[in-house]
Amino acid sequence: MTTTTAPDVLGQALLDYHHGKSGATVTVHCSAADDEPLPAAYFFRTVLQMPELERLALDESRGRVLDLGAGAGCHSLELQNRGFQHVKAVDVSAGAVQVMNERGVLTVARHDLFAPLPPTELPYDTILLLMNGLGLTGTLDGLDKFLAHARTLLAPDGQILATSSDVRYLYEDEDGALLINLNGPYYGEVEYTLSYDGRTGEPFPWLFVDAALLNDAAETAGYTAEFLSEDENDQYLVRLMPQGVKG
């Protein structure tokens, strides 16, 4: 019996762009919205090209930094440029990891965000989850699981800096009324599939969590949530710290 490995669609697009294919573009299929193109170039943006929320998150970073879902490493590289001595970039994509290594990210690992802290590794002062990074938790249950797990990755006074969005606008009619099945799953739990260059990856869950629900989940998990900023697209940046610790 032979097994096939799901194609690393995003990783291949990042590699192609990094190796000179400037037009490399992934198609994003979402269960809650129309298909959208995602240029690989977006993952290679400079700090001047980053949205304000991401620049603020980098400004608020301190100490040892763990960059989860790092993609092509643009945030880790910027922190290295600022003189940060300990930045670890993590992505589940083999192609993304290869790109980050080739671009000069000093410490790179391939695994998901639930991997345990290696016994020889010190905990982190800052965990970054940018580009709607809380979506990596997949579901509300996954969010609860990650918040518990993150305590094992963080220093006692560490912080999580993460972005997410409230996507209720996707379910509003012309009059602004919400068309949501209250007996169904949470409206921010969606499914994505990526395709590129004739190949399609496996579907994966993604979470967009509204601020009120995140605040409740954080409090239940023993964190204090500080909402640092919000943009015109209902995306926000939040700082999560263990309760009793001040930022």
TrEMBL record:
InterPro entries: SAM-dependent_MTases_sf. Pfam families: Methyltransf_23 (PF13489). Gene3D superfamilies: Vaccinia Virus protein VP39. One of its GO terms (molecular function) is methyltransferase activity. One of its GO terms (biological process) is methylation. The keyword Flavoprotein does not apply. SUPFAM superfamilies: S-adenosyl-L-methionine-dependent methyltransferases. Keywords: Methyltransferase, Transferase. This is Class I SAM-dependent methyltransferase.
